[in-house]
Amino acid sequence: MNPLLQRLQPYPFERLRALTKGITPNPALRPISLGIGEPKHPTPPLVEDALMAALPGLSSYPATAGEPALREAVAAWLQRRYGVSLDAATQVLPVNGSREALFALAQTVVDPSRSGATVVCPNPFYQIYEGAALLAGAQVAFANSDPARNFAAGWSQVDEATWARTQLLYVCSPGNPTGAVMPLSEWARLFELSDRHGFVIASDECYSEIYFGDEAPLGSLQAAMELGRGDFRRLIAFTSLSKRSNVPGMRSGFVAGDADIIKAFLLYRTYHGSAMSPTVQRASVAAWNDEAHVQANRALYKRKFEQVTPVLAEVLDVQLPDAGFYLWAGVPGADDIDFALKLLAQYNVAVLPGSLLARTAHGANPGAGRIRMALVAGVDECLEAARRIHQFTKEYQPS
């Protein structure tokens, strides 16, 4: 067996299942889960119709590079959304959802034979980043979230010696679980570090289309263009249809950016067997070409957060995030696991303890004392969950 597998840690939900084993939630209340970030809004009919119309595509093997129509639809969306121009043939590559691509990129760009090969990622973080780094033979360095900066990653915590060993940096903006969006000044700093030390930046932007203000979140490619880096050197952006278009089961997304990295990534993926189904590709074209369903989806999230956040803010340390569909809330007593387990037992509401989403680094676990709530269900269900949490918190006695 690959000995690197022994370095992997259990996934947060696996750890939570172990913690909740033996707990019997209050049977008088129907269960409500705010734990898993799985979109629950209806899939747009235009995507379903396109998928059904493309069923004959199942009789053909797909090309790993994807169909030109899909790459061109993605490039056109990037132009509309961010004002950036990319070559659809060399700077865009369809992937089977951002998750598998985030993992695979590390296997492409990390050279484990170099001494001290390091991957840097935010903390708390999407656990794929860590697993990808470990299975690529690298070590992981963390940048803890900074409460004083709306829980954005504190890149200044990473010292120069670590940056010098870094081969890959994972960035998540809007962030999971914090919802923080990186400003242009922060991108400028990361690009300067990338130029100095030669590492690749992998920008996870799968929550980019769920936001609450009038201005859409800044994207990495947009930031690069504004800073005079139109070749997108050492930069790859990841985006998915799962959250944007409520199609997590389609496993459809793309990567875009540095043409040289895309070329190497395509070579890796050709051997890995990562081609997207022609049927999914054609449904994806329909999704990327339409914004009406995205606007309706965003409006629904906005209405949900406007109703739920004030209820929870009365009893928890929580505020509206920059973007995304999570609330990142501080709990009384600072023991997020105790809070989550008692909430489940007494009020049948599942949330994810923040400490399970982070690692202890720089002397602290930045997820400790916080919970992540995914407002993915309907407005009424999320509001009911918020009212239960409100009542529970008033009664809560830490262990």
Describe the structure.
This protein is α/β, with parallel strands linked by helices. The chain has 2 domains: 3-42 and 293-395, Aspartate Aminotransferase, domain 1 (Alpha-Beta Complex); 60-290, 3-Layer(aba) Sandwich (Aspartate Aminotransferase, domain 2). Helix content is 40%, strand content 15%. It contains 14 helices and 13 strands. It has helices at residues 12-20, 45-53, 68-82, 98-109, 128-135, 160-165, 184-197, 220-226, 241-245, 259-272, 278-288, 292-313, 336-347, 379-395, and strands at residues 32-33, 92-95, 118-123, 139-146, 152-153, 166-172, 200-204, 235-240, 253-257, 326-330, 349-350, 352-353, 370-374. The strands form 3 sheets. Strands 2-9-8-7-6-3-4-5 form an 8-stranded mixed sheet, with helices on both faces. A 3-stranded antiparallel sheet has the order 10-13-12. The chain is globular. The model has no long low-confidence stretch (mean pLDDT 97).
The CATH topology of the largest domain is Aspartate Aminotransferase, domain 2
Elements, N to C (H/E): HEHHEHEHEEHEHEHEHEHHHEHEEEH
CATH superfamily grouping of the largest domain:
Type I PLP-dependent aspartate aminotransferase-like (Major domain)
Number of beta strands: 13
Features:
40% helix; 399 residues; alpha/beta; Aspartate Aminotransferase, domain 2; Aspartate Aminotransferase, domain 1; 3-stranded antiparallel sheet
Task: Set out the fold topology.
Layout: H1 12-20, E1 32-33, H2 45-53, H3 68-82, E2 92-95, H4 98-109, E3 118-123, H5 128-135, E4 139-146, E5 152-153, H6 160-165, E6 166-172, H7 184-197, E7 200-204, H8 220-226, E8 235-240, H9 241-245, E9 253-257, H10 259-272, H11 278-288, H12 292-313, E10 326-330, H13 336-347, E11 349-350, E12 352-353, E13 370-374, H14 379-395
Parallel strand pairs: 1-11, 3-4, 3-6, 6-7, 7-8
Antiparallel strand pairs: 2-9, 4-5, 8-9, 10-13, 12-13
Helix pairs in contact: 2-11, 3-11, 4-5, 4-10, 12-14
